[in-house]
Specification:
By secondary structure, the protein is an all-alpha fold. 68% of the residues lie in helices and 0% in strands. It contains 5 helices and no strands. The chain has helices at 3-14, 19-27, 37-46, 50-64, 71-76. Helix 2 runs antiparallel to helix 3. The relative contact order is 0.17. It comes from Neogobius melanostomus. One of its GO terms (biological process) is endocytosis. InterPro entries: ENTH (IPR013809), ENTH_VHS (IPR008942).
């Protein structure tokens, strides 16, 4: 496990992110590769649930407002 993956898991626990928010964070991470199609499919399926849709869109909005060194967050959203 890489340090960035470990740090991401700790942040997920500390911030008490939901499953939907964790998946969006993983898909829009600063890693140089893109998200897997299965992860994107899972996120798309989550948007059919009203509560999960709000969580997904909240995290997407948060990622769209990133700047500076987190430019990949904006690019991947």
């Amino acid at each position: 496990m890489t340090t960035s993956a470990l740090r991401r898991q700790v942040k997920n626990i500390v911030h008490n992110y939901s499953e939907a928010e964790i998946k969006v964070r993983e898909a829009t991470s600063n890693d140089p590769w893109g998200p897997s199609s299965s992860l994107m499919s899972e996120i798309a399926d989550l948007t059919f649930n009203v509560v999960a849709f709000a969580e997904v869109m909240g995290m997407v909005w948060k990622r769209l407002n990133d700047s500076g060194k987190n430019w990949r967050h904006v690019y991947k959203v």
